[in-house]
Write a structure and sequence with these properties.
This is Transcription initiation factor TFIID subunit 13. The structure is a single chain. The longest helix is centred in the C-terminal third of the chain and has 31 residues. The N terminus is likely disordered. The chain has two domains: 63 residues, Orthogonal Bundle (Histone, subunit A); 36 residues. The chain is mainly alpha-helical.
Length: 130
């Protein structure tokens, strides 16, 4: 975490440490950073500096991408769908031993269904007016 009061400057230059993709994060073939903005906001929300070190954000993003990749591969391996396609129940199965993550996924799925119903109810009256 940075100390802004000390006048310490941040090094936002790309690092050259190895990335999970096999290359270095500073080379020309580095993976595109997909979640940097969101991760910076989340880090700030959890008490980090408003402008966290680029290396911290990159490391966190590497961990997030690795976790998502691992979970996706595991879900397709145990896949209940015979065509090798992942379904929501595969993710739920993987998270069955982690009550917090399992409950959060169930909550998000429930909210998604509620939003779908609300959109459908909102769209139906307008179709009758046409």
């Amino acid at each position: 975490m940075a100390n802004q009061a000390s006048g310490e400057k941040r090094n936002d230059a790309p690092s050259t440490r190895p990335s999970p993709s096999g290359g270095t994060s500073g080379d020309n073939h580095a993976r595109k950073r997909l979640f940097s903005k969101e991760l910076r906001n989340m880090m700030y929300g959890f008490g980090d500096d408003p402008q966290p070190y680029a290396e911290s954000v990159e490391l966190l993003e590497d961990l997030v991408v690795q976790y998502i990749t691992d979970m996706t591969l595991k879900a397709t391996e145990i896949g209940s769908n015979k065509q090798g396609r992942m379904v929501v129940n595969d993710i739920l199965y993987l998270l069955r031993h982690d009550p917090r993550k399992y409950a959060r996924v169930k909550e998000l799925l429930s909210m998604n269904e509620e939003l779908k119903r609300a959109r459908k109810a909102f769209d139906e009256p307008s179709k009758g007016l046409e």
